[in-house]
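re: ur msg from earlier - yeah i can do the nicotinamide-adenine-dinucleotide complex, just paste it... oh wait u already did. ok heres what im feeding in:
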Amino acid sequence: MKIVVLDGYTLSPGDLSWEGLEKIGDLKVYDRTSYDLSGQDKIIERAKDAEVLFVNKTPITREALDQMPKLKFIGVLATGYNIVDVEAAKEKGIVVTNIPTYGTTAVAQMAFALLLEMCHHVWEHSEAVKKGDWTNNPDWCFWNYPLIELADKTMGIIGFGRIGQTVGKIAQAFGMKVLAFDSYQNKALESDTLKYVELDELLAESDVISLHCPLFESTKGIINKNTIAKMKKNAMLINTSRGPLVVEEDLAEALNSGRIAGAAVDVVSSEPIKGDNPLLKAKNIIITPHISWAPKESRKRLMDIAIDNLEKFLAGTPVNVVNP
Ligand code: NAD
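and the outut:
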């Protein structure tokens, strides 16, 4: 059985083994093939004889599937599977699976890494010390930014699912109050320090706003000039979910004008980030290159689930199928 991985590098840049898939079939792993349709011919060339295909962010279109007559299974190496034409796959009897959960704790931890960096500017203070600013300081300590304590502040979480709830637990451990906005409310989660609210109340009351809803038509651009106008002036925004949840021009404008205090984003509208993305030149923003999912522990979990998805499919008991 021929197994092809079209873009394996981000899952394993060399620190995870592909041996689990090697045991199942004749495996060929490409680091990357093409992240857009300009590479369609290369995608087809590499996958045309595959019976099993794994992709992370390589687009698999109906036209490409037409050229892959032996294909029976596509394993998406991520949660989001919008890169595969799942309807076309279904029509052709190709099972498509995803990895519904592998990085909950990693993404929640990253949201707090970003928040704590905004509160303490640890890296910038360390750099200042190394370049001599402490040595030459008249006092025994100094700080270059306002330092922020989180206890008693309010964290607004938009999208209170697996990751949102984990962020909520960490926030409560820091002594924060949590306001949750979700289209599905599990009232059993409410407590003295956690309640569900409507979006407007969350925007108006929160000192920190963290986005954890999926990217749907209904959530695209949920952070825009109108919703930003409802936020507190000291608000800090965190986005570890999906870039298009935020209208980046509006966020850049709000940061540059001091309308909100800061932002930290791990995801942007187009990745890798384009050179003219307005956030690159905005004030008071931290931008990281979509690393929330990527601790080794989290990627190992993803790899194990991907292998399990294929094994269960081959055993006739498929799981995590997104085009049933
Ligand atoms: P989840 O499905 O457990 O939770 C999503 C929550 O959002 C659900 O409770 C759902 O009811 C809610 N929701 C849906 N539509 C909504 C709306 N219109 N308004 C408010 N809430 C809405 O998903 P999860 O595992 O917590 O993951 C959340 C998101 O995190 C994913 O969709 C993905 O975009 C992102 N993510 C990012 C990374 C990364 O590396 N940056 C990694 C994994 C996941």
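cool cool. Residues 104-287 form a domain with the Rossmann fold fold (CATH 3.40.50.720). ping me if u need the other ligands too
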